[in-house]
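Hey, sorry to bother you again with one of my protein questions. I've been staring at a protein lately and its backbone has me curious. I owe you a coffee for this, so here goes:
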Amino acid sequence: MKRSRAVLLTAGLAVGVLAGAAMAARAQQPPYDWAGRVVLITGGSRGLGLVLARELVDRGARVAICARDRNELAHARAELGEGGRGGEVFAVVCDVTDEPAVRSMMRTVEQRLGPIDVLINNAGVISVGPAEDMTTADYEEAMRTHFWAPLFTMMAVLPGMRERREGRVVNISSIGGKIAVPHMAPYIASKFALAGVSEALGLEFLKHGVKITGIYPGLMQTGGPVNATFKGHHRAEYTWFTLASSMPGLVMSPERAARKIIRAAERGSAQAIVGVPAKLAVTVARHMPGVWTWVLGQLNRVLPSPGGSDARLGCESESAISTSFLTRAVYRAAARNNQYGRQSVPDAAIPSARDEMEERPAPSITSP
C-alpha cells in the first residue's frame, strides 16, 4: 500500500513538473502576429465565421472565406472590405463536403494569397428535433459537414504545414462535442467526432510544429436559429430553441467568443471551452454524471413530442412567441451577421472551386 502511494505521489509530482514546464515555455513564446498571415475560414459568409473574419481582417490578416452561397459571400466580402479594415479579403464558393472541390478551392486560395498559415474549420449545420424524427440522412449530413469536411480541409493543408514546420488549425466544435443534450442527436454525434479527430491529429502533428486547437463554445448570439432546420413539431422546436438562444447569462456575444477563439489559436492551445456556462456544464457532467443525466432527462420530458420527419428552416417555423420581444436579440443578431443573405455583385466576381476543377489524387496528411 505504501509503495503504491509513493508511486502515485511520484507520478503526480512528475505531471505537475511537466505542466509547469509547459506553462513556462508557453509564456516565453513571442506574441503571434496576424499581420500578413493567410487565414482560411470555412463557413465564413455568416454567423461566427463572419465575426471571426471581421476580427482577423482588423488584425491585418489576409483572409479567405468560403461558403456554398455566392450571394452571402458577396455581401460578406463587401462588408469586410469596408471601413478601412487592415487585411485583404478573398471569397470563393465551395461546398466543403465535396473533397475534390475542397482541393480545388485550396489551390485557388494559395494561388491568390499564398500558403495557408491558419485554417479555421467553422462550417456547420444544426438540425433540431426528437431522435424519433431523425433519419440516417440527418446523421449523414451532420457527419459530412462536421467531420468529413474538416478532415478534407486538414488533409489539404497539413502536408504543407508539416513541410514548413509551422501552421495552425482551429476546429470549431461545440459544447455539444463535450456533452450531450436532447433533441440534437445528429449534431451531437458529429461534433463528438470532430473533437476526437482534432485531439488525435493534434497529438501527432505537434512534433511537426503544427498546432491543432479544438474549440468548444456554448450558446452564442449569432442569429443562427433562423437557418437551422427543425423537425417534428417544428414551430414548437423553433420556439424553445430561440428562447434558449435569447437567455441573458446563458448566451454570449459572438464577438467575445471570436476574441477568445483567436487567443486560443495564438497560444496554440490543444482545446478551449468558450463561455462560463459551457465550462460549468462540462464540469458538472464530468464530476456528477448522474446528476447531469437526471437534469437533462427531466428537460427532455418537457420538450416537444415526435411529430414527423419533415424538416423546416427556422425562418419557416416562426410563431407568436418565437418572434416576440423575448427573442428580439436573435433577429437583431441574424441581421447583423448576414444570416438572411443578400443579393449582391455579379456571379463572376466570386470564383467557384468547381469552375476549373482538376481531378487529382487525394493528398496524404503525412506526406511532406
